[in-house]
């Protein structure tokens, strides 16, 4: 099964990765956490399928006043 994994580092910065893992979501969580690109991140969200994830910074051009 394909998943979109959302990771966060200690500075609160998010990163996104696509992974293939088992259908068992608990096992998939552990598999994907072990395969993450950056060991200094924590898996915080697992989405079924390949998602095009956008953060606030990706969408908003100007700072809010």
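^ Assign residues to that structure.
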């Amino acid at each position: 099964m394909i998943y979109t994994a959302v990771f966060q580092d200690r500075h609160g910065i998010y990163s996104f990765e696509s992974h293939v893992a088992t259908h068992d979501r608990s096992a998939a969580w552990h598999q994907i956490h072990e395969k993450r690109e950056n060991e200094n991140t924590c898996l915080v969200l697992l989405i079924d399928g390949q998602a095009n994830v956008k953060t606030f910074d990706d969408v908003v051009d100007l700072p809010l006043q």
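Strands lie at 2-9, 14-20, 41-48.
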